[in-house]
Specification:
- With about 450 residues, the protein is an alpha/beta fold.
- It has two domains: about 250 residues, LarA, N-terminal domain (Rossmann fold, 3-Layer(aba) Sandwich), CATH 3.40.50; about 160 residues, LarA, C-terminal domain (2-enoyl-CoA Hydratase, Chain A, domain 1), CATH 3.90.226.30.
- It has 19 helices and 18 strands.
- A six-stranded mixed beta sheet has the order 1-10-9-6-2-3, with helices on both faces. A six-stranded mixed beta sheet has the order 15-14-13-12-17-16. It has a two-stranded antiparallel sheet with strand order 4-5.
- Helix 14 runs antiparallel to helix 16.
- The longest helix is centred in the first third of the chain and has 18 residues.
- It is globular, with a radius of gyration of 21 Å.
């Protein structure tokens, strides 16, 4: 059972601080009364808008007598700079914040068997998923581990957070690669907004078998837009079990999915410059709106901070070489191209970032050229011109009619939700394993 939940239209800082204090009180009763060594696992700066950094700072300050360390759950994202850590985590000393090294900072913990992956994905993926996790997490002694994160619709796991913090956020290269390509071949639109996707079912299985000894608790944040269209915290869910995640995900499903009766012709999405600097993360605009856009429609992404495609040189090179040009072409190349086979998570990204030729994706990046954008299969627009035409100070969330009569649907924070038609959400190919998954493979 979950430990507790705090819900409301817009939680105050006092309510959030109260939830932090109560979490620590409950942890002393349930896990360890003497909290000498505590590990905090927040998201990285691409989810800074959730307030998770401030909550992490609250936890740190509430433990003045403990040795507290922080590992942002970067996954394969690039490590924060000291300035970025200060921007996100406030007064937490930089020497207490450790960068996750997905290549060299992990060790093999276990393996999710191929049979389980095959069964959950209905045969779309049939390979094992190695479980390689951060050595600081697994090999050091902790009295308490607090996972802090934003539960919101997600392209790989249905909804973000919960044990995603472990298997992706603190996962090793083999884990991230095998899991991402499994989710991609199963289908991004079969994952988005499902409480328990096949990959999450596999992670849940591994968490129960391999990580049950960890002294951990989850603090799950849910946000929504208030009457003034401002993102505010509407729920904090605290506990150490799957039901804690499910409660948060159900609330996110109610509040963070915008449903349409018919598809939209044009969406304008803005990716904030201080959070999104590569299409690797800015393409959340593609993922979260694709189920709402009409055939022949257009998605315009205004991304003033985007300066590259991938966050690592080899992924950037992969995107530049092959582009976002559709699943059939990408998977056919994957069979023979060695550079693709070396980084399958990059291949998954190429699949996720394509419209499959169904609608146009136009990018207005701050620091990439027209030639670079068109080379990867997108259309190009000038960022300054698009910011003037679709001025954030003038545009309102949702439907807007421009002076020349153009109708667009404007989204200021695509990473905070999911937009879809009812027909897409009701597609019978989408299956939800929240009712439980029992494999014949023993735990």
């Amino acid at each position: 059972m979950p430990w507790f939940a705090v819900e409301g239209e817009a939680l105050t800082q006092e309510q959030i601080q109260g939830a932090v204090d109560r979490l620590l009180d409950e942890a002393r009763k349930r896990i360890n009364k003497d909290l000498k060594r505590v590990l905090l696992l927040p998201p990285d700066l691409t989810r800074a808008h959730s307030g998770a950094g401030k909550i992490t700072e609250m936890l740190y300050k509430a433990l003045p007598d403990a040795h507290v360390e922080v590992i942002p759950t970067l996954g394969q994202h690039i490590p924060h700079t000291e300035a970025e850590n200060k921007w996100m985590f406030g007064s937490i000393p930089n020497d207490r914040i450790f960068a996750h090294d997905w290549r060299n900072g992990c060790r093999r913990v276990s393996v999710i068997p191929a049979e389980l992956v095959r069964d959950t994905t209905d045969g779309a993926a049939d390979w094992e998923i190695p479980v390689d996790l951060n050595t600081k997490l697994m090999d050091e002694q902790w009295d308490l581990i607090v996972n802090v994160g934003h539960v919101v619709p997600h392209e790989v796991l249905g909804f973000a957070n919960h044990n995603k913090n472990y298997f992706i956020g603190l996962g090793g290269k083999d884990t991230i690669c095998a899991s991402h390509i499994a989710a991609a071949v199963y289908g991004i639109e079969n994952n988005l907004g499902c409480l328990v996707t096949p990959l999450r079912a596999a992670f849940n299985w591994s968490e129960e078998r391999d990580l049950s000894h960890l002294p951990d608790v989850y603090l799950q944040i849910v946000m929504h837009r208030d009457a003034e269209n401002k993102l505010v915290t509407s729920g904090i869910f605290v506990g150490d079990d799957l039901e804690t995640y499910l409660q948060a995900a159900r609330k996110s499903r109610e509040q963070n999915i915008t449903v349409f009766d018919k598809p939209i012709k044009k969406v304008v999405a803005v990716m904030q410059a201080d959070e999104f600097r590569a299409t690797w993360v800015a393409n959340k605009a593609v993922y979260r709106t694709r189920m709402a856009i009409a055939d022949g429609g257009e998605l315009l992404i205004i991304a003033p901070g985007v300066e590259r495609f991938g966050e690592q040189p080899e992924v950037d090179a992969l995107i530049r070489k092959y582009g976002y040009k559709g699943t059939p072409r990408t998977l056919e190349l994957y069979k023979t191209e060695v550079d693709m086979q070396a980084i399958p998570h990059g291949v998954a990204h190429l699949i996720h970032g394509s419209s499959e030729g169904r609608f146009t994706i136009t990018y207005a990046p701050g620091h990439l050229s027209k030639e670079e954008i068109e080379q990867v299969g997108y259309q190009y627009a000038n960022c300054e011109e698009m910011q003037k035409r679709y001025n954030p100070a003038v545009m309102k969330e949702g439907w807007n009619t421009m002076p020349d009569g153009e109708e667009v649907f404007y989204i200021s924070t695509p990473s905070a939700g999911l937009w879809a038609t009812q027909a897409k959400l009701d597609d019978p190919s989408r299956k939800d394993l929240s009712g439980g998954f029992r494999s014949y493979i023993p735990i």
